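Appendix C reproduces, verbatim, an entry submitted by the partner laboratory led by Prof. M.T., so that reviewers can inspect both the input and the predicted structure.
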Amino acid sequence: MSETTVSRIDGPQLRRKELGSNLLGAGLSILATLIGLLVLAWAILFITKGRFLKPHFERYMSERTLRHVNVAGDFQLYLNPINIKFLAEGLTISNPDWASRDNFFESKLIDTNIATFPLLFRSDRRVNWLNLVDGDLDLEWDSSGKRNTWTMGDPDKPAEPFDMPLIRRASVTGSDLRYRAPQLRFQADLKFETVRARDDRFESDIRFSGGGSMRDKPFRLSGSLMSPNQTVRGGQNRLALQAVGAGNTLDVSGTLRGATDVEGAALKMRARGTNLASLFEFLGVVIPDTRRYALTSNFTKRRDTWRFTGLRGTFGDSDLAGAMTITMPSNRLKIDADLTSRVLDILDAGPWVGYDPERLDRLGASGAIQNVGGRPRVLPDASLNVAGLRQFDAHLDYRVGRLRMEKAPISNIGLRLDLDRSLLKLSPLTFDIAGGHLTSDIIINARGRPVRTDYDIRLSPVRMGVLLAKFGAEDSGTTGRMKARIRLSGTGDSVHESLASANGRIAVIMPAGTFWTRNVQLSELDIGTFVQKMFEKRLKEPVRINCGLVAFTVRNGIAAADPILIDTTKNVIGGRGGFSFKDESLNLAIEADAKTFSAFSAQSPIGVKGYFAAPRIDPISGELMARAGAGLGLAALVSPLAAVVAFIDPGDADSVQCGPVLAGARAYAQREKDGGKVDAISKDAKGGDKPKKKRKKFLGIF
């Protein structure tokens, strides 16, 4: 190959190499120039301390924040050597026009060292060192709760949560923090001061103190943050804080990586007071009132989540343990809790439905009864905090080993609670009772007014002998069981109001079984049989119950018997009347009609009168008195033995069909064995009592 050919091939390659070399050289030259300019700029800033940037800083920050930013004295802004050094004497940042103070921030001196790379490449702001002299910070919300003083820029943009920079070390002299939140009725004023720590391991102690009020309830706050001296590595700060207010005392202690850096910090909390609800009220969270409490917990913060673990303590006479987290998804407070109690005292459960915890603590169970308009009332009428429920969401799983209650064998309580934008669901709420199981779903819809509550309560068969044992009955000889269903819907802000307006049905069903003779016979007032068995010492001979139904139809808070019907081997027991959720009055009449002959049988209606809180049994009804009068008349005219005739029941009742009874059917569907209507509960078309069957005459006299 000739030299001419080689040169033709190498020429373009040589030119490309020369071009590449020239471009690389140019790039390196440009890079070197930029680096040189940066070094020069850094050197100029370092030498001049950036003082010449003062007017540019004021103008730029004023335009960016739409606030007036001014530095009255010395100003420094430069890299030292990598981190940003900022110093300003007499720095002021104005407040928006609606605020109660002129300035959002003002200080005599602010001298700080800010980490550069987190500021440029991450969302967090880390302050390595802060020296603040006579600094005042005003954090304030407007009355609508839609604007605040720390959201800079466009006044129409949504308010932002306060984002405190992470301060590693600080020295603060004569500085104040002011916070106002009118929509929460909350205000606080704190003063900060750095003093020499007494502990040789620490060089400075930032102490803070002050107070304020929450919903017109005052509180006090004090504490200290001790920073280690140069011989202690790690840059950690020891925190001790105490807050006292509204009958609560809260102590927090632990170690922080920085003065304001609680991220990942392992802290301890101890809270005690008269009512746990008043403590949560500071968070804007509504929980049921409690009696006196004392709780301890570990807690830490991970990003936007506060975790409370190892929670243990007591409230009233009950214990409590578990864990809780507080988060802010979509800028809305959310509480998740998983709690347990080995033993829950009934007095501590009372406030969950609206009873006054202080009254229960003072009076015990009788504290649930109040006198209203001269009448005793037991249904709680404490109003639901509808406004509070709108402020947060919640999920709770709560388990109880045993309920401490004198006359109710209740255990294994389980509750799942969900609150989603004012829709509160207690679903399911379950517990074991007397060998049976209760399951309920209660839904409280507070999204509109009035508040609507739906109750659906199901009771699987429970052993009557166990259930009645603590009321004086004996389980021996009793195999009867009971199941029930309650479905009601009502409106109102309290339990009393919702039930006083409720519509629905209540049904208690008793399948076949045996009951202790004494209890059954007494309820039927079959005096002759009872006395006979008493003298024969046969008090515990079982009596057969074929089927029974105690049911009420509820309309606008008034419950009418629909029906009360119990079929035994000896009697058909029927009832009429009802009760009222409005004034809690009782007006029932129970009557037993014998199937077989029985002397000394007072088959007249037994009156159940009075109120829920003070029921009264009245066996001496008008009809019974009339029969007694007739007997006395006979005794006077004929002989004392003839008086017995007035109390003889010829036994003409027919057995009922148990199918409709066990199905919980209404009164109109109940039938006797022969298909006829049951006399004890049948009504005429106008709702009045139908005439009872004409009784068989005895000896042609009655």
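Residues 45-184 form one domain. Additional entries are available on request from the coordinating office.
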